[in-house]
Amino acid sequence: MTAPPPRTLVAGVGNIFLGDDAFGVETVRRLPRAGLPAGVEVLEAGVRGVDLAYRLLDGYDTFVLVDATARGGAPGTLYVLDAGECGTAASPGAVLDGHRMTPDAVLALLGTLCAGTGGTPPRRVVVVGCEPADVGEGMGLSPAVEAAVPAAVGLVRGLVGAADEPAAGAVGGTDGLPLWQDGDRAVPDAVTHERSTSPW
Question: Considering the entire predicted model, what is its pTM?
Fold first, then answer.
């Protein structure tokens, strides 16, 4: 009998009314039509951080979080971050807001929920982030971030094992992860790979 494939959850977070903060949501919206392997589930989490934390109690092997991530790079720069163990990114005195939780607060809440329920957090947590240009009020991504979305879709597909049939041309990466470019346009110039307990 063949064992079921490992379960993976890919979640896009962010507020669609705050410009580039919608990067994660827009990226995961495009994932299903790009093709994903069995065992991969996609969730548009938006600003529902508490719901996302509870969803992660369902027994996933890998969690890929897609979000706008300001780390000082040029707008549209993509980051692949190993977020380490769930629950290690807690901020002292953090306030739980069911309508807007930062991703590190989601992971901290997940750690608390696992401790209280005996649940098991995902073995691996990876963040695909994008440097925003503008997170002010308004709908729609900036040109730089919009141009990075296809590359982000390719990165996520590579992380979940769907890189055999990429929608865009692949170029060499590091740490076993592919870098991607959108047709003839390099988007972005580089993808940063890091290990971080708090990518935000």
Answer: 0.74
